[in-house]
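Tutorial handout. Part one gives the primary structure; part two gives the three-dimensional structure as tokens.
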Amino acid sequence: MNILIDIDGTVSEDIPNAEDYRFANAKVLDNAVESVNKLYDAGHHITFFTARLTKHREVTEQWLKKHKFKYHALLTDKPSGGRYIWIDNLDVKGIKYKNNWEDILKKI
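Part two.
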């Protein structure tokens, strides 16, 4: 399964691009590393999809490495804010993160 995961407010504290100086030392959210790595180890393709800009790619990759997140790809420049609608010819499932990675794992 292909799994897209946001970064800010999902695996790290929510930091706006205007405060990019905070990215390197962002707090990891509870159970985020363990949960993402569990999905990776189960054979899922993990892609982080973030509204952080291309210019933030290096600091973001370093942060993910520092905290030992396992993943396959990082996509930047996601449109920020608002609601997302994904239209595809394949099955699509969305899960809203509500401060609990255990609930997310149960829904996958």
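Part three, for discussion. The chain is about 25% helix and 10% strand. The domain at 2-107 is CATH 3.40.50.1000 (Rossmann fold).
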